Amino acid sequence: MKVLLTSNANNPYITELVKELSKVMEIKNSVTDFWESDEIFDVVHIQWPEELFKWLAPSDEQLNHFKVRFETWKGRGSKIVITRHNELPNKEDALSFKSLYDFSYATADAVIHLGRYSFERFADNRTINEVIPHHVYTSYPNLVSRSEARSKLGIPEKAKVILCFGMIRTKDEKKLIFKAFSKLNITNKYLLIPGFFERYSFKKLPLKKTVIRLKHYFKSVFSNQWLGFKFVPHNEVQFFFNAADVVLIPRLENLTSGVVYLSLAFNKYVVGPENGNITEVLDKFGFPKFNGADELSVITALEKALSIEECGKVSEAAKEQFSLSHSVKLHVDLYTTITQ
């Protein structure tokens, strides 16, 4: 079995999956090879269609070239697999990707869904559809204690820490987080958002960046909020998750969220929205859910999670179906089925 996985993303979902699949088959991950390679692959597996266009919406000419390349691969005998990560990209110009997405998912030989919700909403009879759950991440170091993590970040030992990890993408997400936090009836509450300013560009406003940095440094010292500016390096992720009591997922429109599976890697209690594939994972572990349109619902879910004495106890049995080894097996089974 020879597979081309068309992603160069520095994303542990990809790197961990490729590493394990490489133990049982020949696999190459490359965007360039999708466009230029003359090699014969049994399977061409696309993760995010937009990555083939450097994450930008394709022009009509580029989309036509993509369609031609699609047919070229099929003409060589390759089977096309595509994973449904999103309904559309998480971008302000999401609709400009609709033609790309519509063609990709309708024309592929098989579509992988990361949950039942996606399967039930998008599966049709034009292609093979399989559910292969997003795996719990395995490559993040987890060597520091709760006390060590809090000491490094300057968080009080007795604080009840709510972590929002990753970029805050929209005003609605920001509003949800801060409104709920401000009204939480919890003593010693503390909000930790390491990537809060990640979506902002300060290249033309260096003084503004300095002022904001100082403001939020003093806020982290003298208040109950820690707001960060940048992407967290792989080996430092452990400090933020081990410092937290609960992880809040503020995604209001996503099909799925990698932060859910990152939280499970650190055995953290998760509070998340009732939408997309996220709901079924929360239900599987008995985590509190909320209605993103109902502020009281968010507050109630957070208070419930923070009131549980042992938030770090996550069912290991429930994690089995989200294991990397299970995901690899299901990928191999699908590749085998469509190439027979």
TrEMBL record:
Superkingdom assignment: Bacteria
Identification of the protein by name: Glycosyltransferase involved in cell wall biosynthesis
Organism of origin: Mucilaginibacter defluvii
Biological classification of the source: Bacteria, Pseudomonadati, Bacteroidota, Sphingobacteriia, Sphingobacteriales
